[in-house]
Amino acid sequence: xxxxxxxxxxxxxxxxxxxxxxxxxxxxxxxxxxxxxxxxxxxxxxxxxxxxxxxxxxxxxxxxxxxxxxxxxxxxxxxxxxxxxxxxxxxxxxxxxxxxxxxxxxxxxxxxxxxxxxxxxxxxxxxxxxxxxxxxxxxxxxxxxxxxxxxxxxxxxxxxxxxxxxxxxxxxxxxxxxxxxxxxxxxxxxxxxxxxxxxxxxxxxxxxxxxxxxxxxxxxxxxxxxxxxxxxxxxxxxxxxxxxxxxxxxxxxxx
Length: 255
Fold this sequence. Notes:
Strand content: 15-25%
Mean pLDDT: 79
Low-confidence stretches: 1-6, 139-168
Helix content: 25-40%
Shape: elongated
Strand order of the largest sheet: 2-3-1-6
Structural class: alpha+beta
Oligomer: single chain
Order of helices and strands: EHEEHEEEHHHEHEEHEEE
Radius of gyration: 25 Å
Number of helices: 7
Number of strands: 12
């Protein structure tokens, strides 16, 4: 299987191969089957990840049992046409979940997942912040346009909200970057510090729960480091509490 196109290798060798420039119109099961058939020629494939969401389309990760198999695959498959498009290969930037789970213990695997989740949330927060900045930028207008749209008296528009959704654009709670303090909402009124400590105190580095005296249904939960907060958020977000099992909302504190 000769390489038709020489791709650029930017990452150090590891057992996970990153594949891009895949044909996006192919159904996911068919794409996975084709990739598995091709890459299995070079070693044991222990995992193959390909997703259909917009950002992940046209990409896949092939996890081999060892680095040598990944090296052989990149050397031989680089530029090979699949569904009439040349595949471009590189080593993955980080170790895959399957590799860490296979080579490490449970603690290392959990730490790896927390780091990956934190990085994903940081990227989402950055993207949301950039989008908010973009929406806040004023449109370029001429002096004549400005004069034509300026109200005759400032008092006339007093108390009215802008119809421009960009005026108050902020990063949504769900995309705030990780930090060591969680903001918990939609709590049942009968839940006190002790009750919340039983839920959040089981995660690494727990420090305290703080209720807000003047506000019902919310609390702040602090940990010694981000790792504990990430685990707690991942495990408790959407948890049903109280007689009605109302799901709670858990996000990072806005800073």
